[in-house]
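Researcher: Go.
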Amino acid sequence: MGFLHLFIVNKSGGLIHHRPLGPRAPRIGTNEWLRIGSTFHSLHAIAAEASPVRLPGNKNPCKRRGP
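Model: Structure:
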């Protein structure tokens, strides 16, 4: 199984670029492209906050409680 689409999303969640990578890639309308791009941005933001380790380039400091 390979990748069917390439998505590039900016920091504010806007879809900058998308490209189908093969003939099996489904055709999707403009609104769906934008919705998918914002979904990837949201998933990245949640994962960065939930990460137990500080990731390179993550501007949010780790908030740990305890000793």
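Model: The mean pLDDT is 77.
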